Amino acid sequence: MKPPKNVLASGRTNGDDWIEVAPAQLPTILTELKARGFRSWSFMTCVDHLGTPLVVPPKERFELVYQLRNMETREQIRVRAFVPASDPVAPSVQEIFAPANWDERETWDLFGIRFEGHPDLRRILLPDEWVGHPLRRDHPVGGEPVEFSDDHQSWQTAPAEA
Amino acid sequence: MRTDTEPQGMAITRESDSAHLGGDIMTVNFGPHHPSTHGVLRLVVDLDGERVVGLKPHIGYLHTGIEKQMESLRYQQAVVATDRHDYLSPLFNNLAYALAVEKLMAIEVPPRAQALRVIMCELCRLSSHMVWLGTSGLELGAMSMLMYCFRDRDRVMDLNEEISGFRMHTSYIRPGGVMADATDNFWTLLERFCQDMPGNIDEYENVLTSNPIWRARTIGIGLLAPEDAIALGATGPMLRGSGVDWDLRKVAPYSGYEKYDFEVPLSDAGDCYGRYLVRVAEMRESLKIISQAARQIPGGPVNVDDRKLLSPPREELETSMEAVIHHFKIVTEGYSPPAGDAYAVVESPRGESGCYLVSDGTHKPRRAKFRSASFVNLQALEKMALGGMVADMIAIIGTADAVLGDVDR
């Protein structure tokens, strides 16, 4: 498949095709992909790369992932966009793909990514008064804070407050 | 408690701006603890008389943070977490997860394991559809359906127990293969089950298919046009009930589904009755797949022969030093797929059930995302229920077959 214009990178990982775009380009690219036949929405989500052990770390902390499927040619495509931790904002695509509505609410709820233009960006899974965004890697999973927490990142438990 | 609750009590009335019946519009809380919501789903429904003019689903009551838990579990430990979100089809979650791990690590499981996976998944599809049929029948007044369906579902549970030791959350399908080979007793039980089931499905159909009450409650109710179904991301029987020929077992075969001869049931009706017909026909197709797979099951191992992925057989530990080291490494550390991401999908009883795994090269997943069919299918509820009667909403929720554990994860 010929990638659309304004694509920053493209490739194939473990048999899955992907393209990478700038967050601002998401609505344009997804509209173009939809016009090309990628009408079926699989999911969208976010990956938090905080404290990644990779030698070449990802560009930014948050990676948005959109998975689409072409029901005629049966191809799949994954669209990635990196969003900085300092300003986690991306344009909403729920007008292009209706099921994105809940997926974006979930991503806001669990990762704290704001989607501009979303009509109803409220928490969806957690109670409204919940503090924090639990799928972020720095959100503690519980457990007792211990004295020797040098390796707290590998245990994913934040060290005790001094 | 949630604070987005608009109505402050059981129900409030407010001035309607464009009342169809000239009366007030009443906003009612439906659920979360309502037997017909198949779990804990809360709907805020605007009613004009008995007509639904507004519907807002509120979900999250069964959120258990499975995706967060999986980030702190090693790859082989995370299997048990996958069982538990869609509790009516645990084997499909196992399979989606196992396929994603195998995709990350470029592993091909042996043919016997693939056939066992297919058999167990199709049994699971049968049991899931039986729960759906039993409870949906019960809601619309056909109480005997629940008895029939749970009678037969118990035999699937017996088969689960025979092969894995567990009745519901079997964790039978694991990265690299399956938990254990089937016992002789399993094959005997399976054969008897396959002989009896066609007659039992006839029995279900005798109760419902031409039942005037069932037909009146489902035909023409909850219409979903094919283009709407695709636009709303609906998959599985929701999509096929609207006449879209789309089954991942056919369009993107996995685990050797291309070897089996089966049909994809379709209905052009797009209503609750159409979705009912599709699911009942799917049960018959599942039986066809099970008998074929059981008849032509190849011999050989049920796990990949890879000591870096699975611990060695018990008897090797007594004679081989290397086996002990491998066992120690697997138990204490696990295995680490190469960095990258993979998305694997299976056709679950509810539609496209997928697992998106991101590995950062360590022994725990960086991110595990479950694409749940129920979560997406539930968004079509508003489209199907608006303009209908409030009693029809029960039929619509029933045939949408959302499992709330899968919606909330």
What structural class is derived from the secondary structure elements of chain A? alpha/beta
Mean pLDDT, all residues of chain B: 86
CATH architecture of chain A: 2-Layer Sandwich
- The CATH topology annotation of chain A reads as Beta Polymerase, domain 2
Write the layout of secondary structure elements.
The complex is a heterodimer of chains A (162) and B (409).
Chain A: E1 9-13, E2 16-20, H1 26-35, E3 40-48, E4 62-69, E5 76-83, E6 89-91, H2 100-111, E7 114-116, H3 152-155
Parallel strand pairs in A: 2-5, 6-7
Antiparallel strand pairs in A: 1-2, 3-4, 4-5
Chain B: E1 11-14, E2 25-30, E3 42-48, E4 51-58, H1 66-71, H2 79-83, H3 90-105, H4 111-139, H5 143-164, E5 173-174, E6 177-178, H6 184-208, H7 212-218, H8 226-231, H9 237-240, H10 248-251, H11 272-295, H12 314-317, H13 321-332, E7 340-348, E8 351-359, E9 367-371, H14 373-377, H15 381-385, H16 390-400, H17 404-408
Antiparallel strand pairs in B: 1-2, 2-3, 3-4, 5-6, 7-8, 8-9
Helix pairs in contact in B: 3-4, 4-5, 4-11, 4-16, 5-6, 6-11, 11-16
Walk me through the structure:
- Chain A is α/β, with parallel strands linked by helices and about 160 residues long.
- Chain A has three helices and seven strands, in the order E-E-H-E-E-E-E-H-E-H.
- Chain A has one domain: NADH:ubiquinone oxidoreductase Nqo5 subunit (Beta Polymerase, domain 2, 2-Layer Sandwich), CATH 3.30.460.80.
- Helix content of chain A is about 15%, strand content about 25%.
- A five-stranded mixed beta sheet of chain A has the order 1-2-5-4-3, with helices on one face. Chain A has a two-stranded parallel sheet with strand order 6-7.
- The radius of gyration of chain A is 18 Å and the shape is globular.
- The model of chain A has no long low-confidence stretch (mean pLDDT about 85).
- Chain B folds into two domains: about 50 residues, no CATH class; about 300 residues, Orthogonal Bundle (Cytochrome-c3 Hydrogenase, chain B), CATH 1.10.645.
- Chain B is built from 17 helices and nine strands.
- Chain B has a four-stranded antiparallel beta sheet.
- In chain B, strand 3 and strand 4 form a beta hairpin.
- The N terminus of chain B is likely disordered.
- Classes of the chains: A alpha/beta (about 160), B alpha+beta (about 400).
- At the A-B interface, strand 3 and helix 2 of A face helix 1, strand 7, strand 8 and strand 9 of B.
